[in-house]
Structures are given as C-alpha cells and as structure tokens.
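Fold this: DNA-binding transcriptional LysR family regulator
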Amino acid sequence: MDLVGACKAFVSVSERGSFTLGASAARIPQPVASRRVAALEKHLGGRLIDRSARRAVLTPFGREMLPSAKRLVELAEAMEHDAERARLTPLRFAVPDVCSTLDLARLDAEAREHDVHLDFQPARPDERAELLRSQQVRAALTAVPVSESAWTVPLGLAAAVPPRARVLHVETLRVGRGDRSAPGRRIWIQPEDDVPHIRDRLTRLRDSVGLRPAQVAVAAALAPAVAAVLGSADLLLCSAKQAEELELHWRPIGGIDLARGYEVAGGAGDEAERIRERLGTGIAHCLGAPPRGGGAA
C-alpha cells in the first residue's frame, strides 16, 4: 500500500469534509481517494471516516490518527522539497582551462537534460588535482596517462604559417653547425600539457635528436605561447581542435605519439561515475577527443 498517498487522501478529505472536494484538492479522482482511504483503514485496523452522513465526518479513531497522518504528509512533502533542491544544487566540476566557453555551455545544457547542474571551475592540471583533494570541487577532469584514460586527445604541432610537410618531425628543428648563433625554432608546451607523461617524453625526444634545451620550452600561460608562435616560426604543442580555435595550422608529430589523457575523478559519492556515463560524449567534444566507442556515452 502507498502509505503516504493514502495519508494525503485521508488528510485532504478530512480537512474539506467531502471525498469529492478532498480528491480535487489532492488532484486525484474521487474513486481513487475513496480507495486509498479504505486501504488505510484496513491497514490501521479501524474506520477513519463515517460515510453514513452527507459529509465525510471523522470517527473517534480518525480524529486520533489525523495528527500522525498530517505529520507523515508534511515529512514526505519536506523530503520531496529537499530532493528537488539537491537535484538543482550545482555540482562543482574542475575542467581544463583550455575548454572554450561555448563547449562548456553546451556541456552544461546537455547535463541539465540529465538533471545534472554543473558549476565549472576551469583550472590547470595540478590545480584541478588540488581542488579535488581539498574538496573544493566534487569532481574533476584529471590529467592521466593514456593507458588510464577515458578520453584521449592526440597532440601535434601548430604553426602560424601552414607547414609544407603533412607530418612535422622534431629533428627538422635542429640548428645546423653553421648556425650556432641562431636561437633555433622552439616548441612551446602550454600549461595543460605540462605533465610528466607528455613533457618528459617530448624533452627526451628533444635530447635524442640533438635539439638545444631551450628549443622545448614550458610556457607560463597559453596566451604568451600563442603570441610567440604568431610572431615567429615557433610551434605550439596542442590538439587539432585547439589549433583551429587559435587559427593556427596543425600537423601530427612524426616518430612519437603524444596525447592528453583524461579521467573523471570524484570525492565521496557517485558523482564521477554519473558524469562519466551520462556526459561522456559532451566531455569528449569539449576536450577535442573522439567519443568513447565511437558513439554516445
């Protein structure tokens, strides 16, 4: 038996002295209200309402049970209100600061279709990890090696002028013996890629092909790195999607596969799993990664 529904019908009928009016106030058909009250009477073992008169009059037993029924109805309504408020409370979510405003807005709109309200906290990889550790956010898109990732974003090199080659090999940036005074073209690593599984592999490649140490540089922020690329022949390590947004010309890197790896991490509760399952495709689009499994997540 639906105890809460039966108590709602009982309270509504008793307050209005009529099954017809009580049912209307409870927004249920009159026969349904009658059946619910009858079921409650059977459940409690006594008649609650005297149906012999023209009005619905409480029996002595009904008068005794009415306060308890009201408390149950009020508690149920308070619980429903709290549940609604909890559903609408934004979930603070740390995301890469390279995600565009439009992509985040689309992800937020998709999340609302699943009754998930997001409050984005754009941050760098180390900052996202700290925000999650300190419980300032409830979930975060963390940077992880590709082998541990749910989403993978291939990286390449982007230039201000379209490169002639379809694939850029790092060794072609090597400074010739007769050009020792030249600074050499640089590869700029933006903060989003300043993580060991990307930075260290690129610097090892730099050393193995004979580039100067300064030819692979970590930028303090994305804007100065892009400015350096726009004003020179330098290159930016980035994704194809990001290069398009920055109006740069992207090429894959020859001889090495570099990629950003992302996973959703969460604190207590099932926030991470809920985001991963319901918003996988939207997150992939934000990051510039192919959808998991090639379809909707």
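Residues 293-297 have pLDDT under 50 and may be disordered. DSSP finds eleven helices and 13 strands in the chain.
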